[in-house]
Specification:
66 residues, mainly alpha, 1 helix, 44% helix, 0% strand, transmembrane
């Protein structure tokens, strides 16, 4: 039984140079997208300012009692 196989020069597993370059770019893309996504999430949930808080007079630094 004879097997006819054709060598594919563009095969991912055939060339270590091509596959390592591809994996390097995929890794860089994933890291960059995670960093940019985290920055956007921090920007979206950023501190909006000092809220108006009602503090009872009895809990001030110099408390006022009735």
């Amino acid at each position: 039984m004879e097997h006819n196989t054709v060598e594919n020069k563009n095969d991912f597993t055939g060339s270590w140079v091509s596959s390592s370059r591809f994996l390097f770019y995929v890794t860089i893309f994933c890291l960059l997208s995670f960093v940019l996504g985290g920055c956007y999430n921090l920007f979206k949930h950023r501190y909006q300012g000092k809220p108006e808080v009602v503090v009872p007079e009895s809990s001030l630094y110099s408390p006022k009692y009735k």
